[in-house]
Structure formats: structure tokens, C-alpha cells
Amino acid sequence: EPEVTQTPSHQVTQMGQEVILRCVPISNHLYFYWYRQILGQKVEFLVSFYNNEISEKSEIFDDQFSVERPDGSNFTLKIRSTKLEDSAMYFCASSEGRGQDEQFFGPGTRLTVL
Amino acid sequence: GQNIDQPTEMTATEGAIVQINCTYQTSGFNGLFWYQQHAGEAPTFLSYNVLDGLEEKGRFSSFLSRSKGYSYLLLKELQMKDSASYLCAVRAGGSYIPTFGRGTSLIVHP
After folding, report:
1. Of A111, A61, A114, A109, whose CA–CA distance to A87 is shortest?
2. Which of B14, B106, B12, B29 is nearest to B70 (CA)?
3. A105 to B42: CB separation less than 8 angstroms, yes or no
């Protein structure tokens, strides 16, 4: 069964550093998403991406964040100048459409900012 | 914004039936999802409701009442592996993005 993959599974970084989280969505899916979940808290939407551009973003997704689809398979989230409060699990998801189509989540990248 | 309420925690016995409720206040309702999330893992899709009524899928069923802003997830013949967090997520206001509730932690004991 096709699945969303994410790398790395765990990233440790120093405050102020830049990190890039990578995702490979399911190959025939057209919509891609990033969510984050701070430990013990709810899943929060960051950004959605369609047709090589951002389609929706939350207020969390400020200038510190950017997304890119550098080739036909990868979808990346870049976090510049990381802060302690960026420590969270980051989930990538993809869907075939946007109606009732379910979003398939990847296993997540646990980001720890020291 | 949206307000989504779920109980924080529930416990149930293996083999029993449990109902997890979700209430929401929103404008422009456009669908409600239930996801299951085991500790340290990604959410996995369980169900989607956009019209009133009951959707049944094996041991899991989901109900929606749009006029009441209410949904429930019904789990039958509980198994130990059903111990997980159950997330209610609502789409509204012209957005295709679901807003997640805090989740209900279900503990199934023998």
C-alpha cells in the first residue's frame, strides 16, 4: 500500500539553526500539507500546497517557514532560525483531492531544538 | 475560529462498546473527520461525515448532526489495540483544512 514517507525521523538542532524536513507524498496525490503537534497538544495546520504554490496557510506559518517541491517527488519544510518552541512533531500529509478525500499522514519528524 | 470539544480521557473494557462525543461551534460547516492516533505515531483516517446520519465501517461508526453541532464515534467489540487518542477534526468557513480537537485518549483494559 502506498504511503507518505518522511526523513529524518528525529532531528536535533541548536537554537538559531536552520532545518529542512523532507517528505515524499503518495505519488498520484496532488495536495500536500504540513502539520505540527507539540508534545501533548493538538495537531495544528501549518500550510497546504497545490500546483506548485501555497494554497492555504495558518498564522503559525510566518516568514520563519517556507515550503518547496524541488523535484517531482519531494516536498520540504524549511524552518529558519529555529526557536525552542519549534520543538514538535512535524507531520507531512497528502491527498488525492480536497473534498472528502482523506489526508494520508506520514510518520512524522520529531524536531528537538536545544 | 472554531471551537471543538471532546472528553479528555475515557476508559472501557475489552469487548465492550464505547461512544466518543465531539461538539463543535463553527460557521460554514463543511465536513467532520475522525482520526485515530497511537502514541508517538501519525493520525490515521477513520471516517468522514458531511451529511446528517450514521456512517458504518466495520467495528467503527460515526454519526453527525449538523443542527446540533454534534458527532460521535462508536467503537464496538473493543480490542486492546484500540487504546489510542481519537481526534475529531472539523472543516468550515470555505477552507478545506480540518481543524483538530485536542483528542480523546481511550484506554481499553482487559
Report:
1. A111
2. B29
3. yes
pLDDT on residue B96: 85
Q: How far apart are CA B31 and CA A109, in angstroms?
A: 28
Give contacts of B43 with chain A, Cβ < 8 Å. 43, 91, 105
Shortest Cα–Cα distance, A82 to chain B (Å)? 22
| pLDDT, average across residues A20-28 | 95
> Is the pLDDT at B1 greater than 70, yes or no?
no
Closest by Cβ to B31, choosing from A41, A100, A108: A100
Residue A16 in grid coordinates? 538559531
User: Given this model, what pLDDT does residue B2 score?
Assistant: 72
The reply to whether residue B42 touches residue A106, judged by beta carbons under 8 angstroms, is yes
> Nearest-5° angle of CA B5, CA B62, CA B93?
55
Would you say how long chain A is, in residues?
A: 114
Q: How far apart are the first and last CA of chain A?
A: 37
Closest residue in B to A99 (Cα) is B96
A43:B95 CB<8 A? no
| CB–CB contact A33 B97 (8 Å) | yes
pLDDT at residue B94 greater than cutoff 90: no
Whether a cis peptide bond, with omega within 30° of 0, leads into A8 is yes
User: Would the pLDDT of A31 be above 70?
Assistant: yes
Give the amino acid at A18: E
pLDDT of A7-18, one tens digit each?
999 999 999 999
Q: Spell out which residues of chain B touch residue A26, defining contact as CB-CB under 8 Å.
A: none
